[in-house]
Amino acid sequence: MPAAASPGSFIPTFSLSAPDGSARSDIIGIRMPWNLTALAIVAGLAAVVLGLPFGMYALLTREQRRTTRAIRAAAEERGWRYRRRRWQGNPTAFRIDGQTRGALTWILTSGSTSGYDRGWSVRLNLRFPTLGGEADVAFQPRDNDGHGSAQTAVEIPTGCPAFDAAYRVLALPGQMHQLPIDAALAERILHWPAAAITPHSVVAWRDSFGLQLQARLPGPPNWETVSYFLALAEDFTARVPPPVMSSASRGLVDRVVARLLRS
Predict the structure, then answer these.
(1) Does residue 108 sit in helix, strand or coil?
(2) Cβ-contact 170, 155 below 8 angstroms
(3) CA distance linking residue 37 with residue 187, whole number of Å
(4) pLDDT tens, residue by residue, 138-194
(5) What's the rounded Cα separation, in Å, for the pair 199 and 46?
(6) Could you tell me where the beta strands, DSSP code E, fall in 71-209?
(7) What is the dihedral of CA 172, 177, 183, 185, to 10 degrees?
(8) Are 33 and 40 contacting, i.e. CB atoms less than 8 angstroms apart?
């Protein structure tokens, strides 16, 4: 007679065929600590299924996360507000709220593109909200049909042949009291420090939401990239005239967009 099963034990049942072809059941009294075995199996499977992807993710993003921590430390050291853009699912996406040496407020964001842009995969966007107004100045690559000034804008050479061959600077006639970008600033836009991530291109424009600059990078920025970009932008803002507010009132959509940009 088989021994009675004790609590917590598992007694497997095997179906066997008798010589006459009839089925019979033999109970083999092998007692197994079922609860412990099940927990061990589940834990092992969880370690394999979950541990491997997380381990690979941590390994592949280790350098990126180290770079992002350096940016955060440098920003907080200067009294700027640093935030992760977690909704992007990108460990290197961030937002920094700060101000220039002249107390001009700005918002800097970094995030991935849609992946369809050749030569760059990260946008470093810088916006000066208080400098928003009429679209009177912009610069962009010559092969770019994106942001620009009003249709009456004219091209203004910088005096730097290499920059003028790659970019065009547009401004409204009579608005500029000095070159928005002179030869010295143009050279600096073209030639970044060796430790920085050299951008594929840089664009700038003014609209009702602010004076905006964008560096299109082939990879996530480091602190050298961020600090150099901020220095270029500060010099650029010193050369453009104060904003002229458009006579057309902003509609509901414009106000909603402006609220989103401030968030």
Answers:
(1) strand
(2) yes
(3) 69
(4) 999 998 755 555 567 899 999 999 999 999 999 998 888 899 999 999 999 999 999
(5) 42
(6) 81-84, 94-99, 105-112, 122-128, 137-141, 154-155, 167-171, 201-207
(7) -90
(8) no
